[in-house]
Design goal:
alpha+beta; DNA Binding (I), subunit A; 2 domains; binds zinc ion
Length: 168
């Protein structure tokens, strides 16, 4: 799959995203096509856009992670948009999914944002032991993830069928 370069509104390069993501950004009026593959277009019932090589965001965004980010508590809260992974309410603490006392570490994949109620309820247990369920899986934020998070599109891929982003 081709990658598309994403520029901030200030023309500063931010990241690359999959062609499919790039199409989502253009279709949602979040970005405009700056440079396209000559002669290639994506056509569907309501869409006819050139296949983007470079897109530029319509509004300037602050992107929280530029490179692969070192783990930090603050970073986990930003990644999870300050929402509790167990109940979706405002999170102020970071929970270790596998508790540190059981060998769980300070890693992106083992930590989630949590409200203080759920954090103390879960205590020194795994989610299974505590009868709690993660609403979202923790992930290591890449620059592309960070960009989609900043645009509020982390879950936006479902809106565009896979075939639509495939150049004809
Ligand atoms: Zn909670």
């Amino acid at each position: 799959m081709r990658e598309t370069l994403v520029l901030n509104a200030s023309f500063e390069p931010l990241s690359t995203v999959s062609l499919r993501r790039a199409v989502v950004l253009v279709m949602r009026d979040k970005a405009v096509v700056e440079q396209a593959h000559p002669g290639l277009r994506i056509r569907a019932a309501t869409v006819d856009i050139p296949v983007p090589q470079v897109i530029r965001l319509c509004r300037y965004v602050r992107v929280p992670f530029r490179q692969r980010a070192a783990w930090s508590r603050r970073g986990v809260l930003v990644r999870d948009r300050h929402r509790c992974a167990y109940c979706g309410r405002k999170a102020t603490t970071v929970d270790h999914v596998l508790p540190r006392s059981r060998g769980g570490g300070d890693t992106w994949l083992n930590t989630v944002a949590s409200c203080s109620d759920d954090n103390s309820r879960k205590a020194d247990r795994t989610p299974e032991q505590a009868g709690m369920r993660l609403l979202t899986e923790p992930f290591e934020p890449t620059p592309a993830d960070a960009l989609l998070l900043a645009l509020g599109l982390k879950d936006g891929s479902a809106a565009v069928p896979e075939w639509l982003a495939r150049p004809a």
